[in-house]
Amino acid sequence: MKQLLILPALLFNFICSSQTFTATIESLTLQTNSAYSPTTSAPFYENGLRFNYTYSSGFWLGGFAYTNIKDSSTAGFTNLYGVKALSGYNNSANFVVGQDGAILTSTGTPIIFKGLYYTNTTFAYKSMKTGDSFAKKFGGISGNDPDYLKLVVLSYSWGIKKDSLVLFLANYTFTNNTQDFILNTWQFADLSSLGLSDSLKFVMRSTDNSGGFMNTPAFFAIDNISYEKLTSTFIQSNNQQSVTFYPNPTKNSVQVSAPEEYSSYTIVDLSGKLVRKGNIDNRKIEFDGLEPGCYFLSVESFNNQKSVRIIIE
Questions:
Q1: Does the N terminus or the C terminus of the chain have fewer Cβ atoms within 10 A?
Q2: Which of the four CATH numbers 2.60.120.200, 2.60.120.1350, 3.20.20.140, 1.10.238.10 does domain 18-230 have?
Q3: pLDDT mean over 183-187
């Protein structure tokens, strides 16, 4: 049976206060009908997020590029930045095009990615729709080939992979062919299930491959990336006794510097679920068996409590 720890109202509200931010890409300036294209590997930033960008030997080789190019009709690799939806989400001017392996990172502490909008580039859409000299037409001649193009979103915290979410940019695996689709509009992806993360990696997977490489163009587009940032981390004690925890972040334990009357502890995850409790032995609390992430650790005496956010790497 799951145990839920009911914290005092003032205490719980304090640690769970947060702010939601959205990277709309609109604050980034561009000339009309152009794209971010420096000749060095220089990331760009918008509203607390870092978008990686890799350039080498005269080409954009990886990561993200922001753009305002409107081209929903030109097929082929000369149109790397247009999207089949024509404009950004909700007809906005700017959006972001990404390549397989692109990485999106929080510039501060770990955050909760809430969601984003995603769609196909015109290059990828046209290739899947009709085929080209490199890639097949999805569904094949008969229309029955079970093809797909997936965008896999991997979440990381402190370099450790935590979770993943699969988004379909095209899906021809349905028994009923009328359900097959190649995405040509902006769709919302709820990322909240990925939990507390400091970065996302976008990996593409296709059924059309040869020689260990994807034949389908490995490009996608995203816009309006929203995330939640915890704005309060420490919980006020109802007395002035000195209590400290170290190290933090930690890998497997913390030392507790506190008066002897603080003899027990509880550990609560971000949802408020009690994940561990016990007595403090030798002023040390072990975290063996807990997944990496953010927790709230409380030490307690007969009539006092001191709590802090702990990050387990």
A1: N
A2: 2.60.120.1350
A3: 98
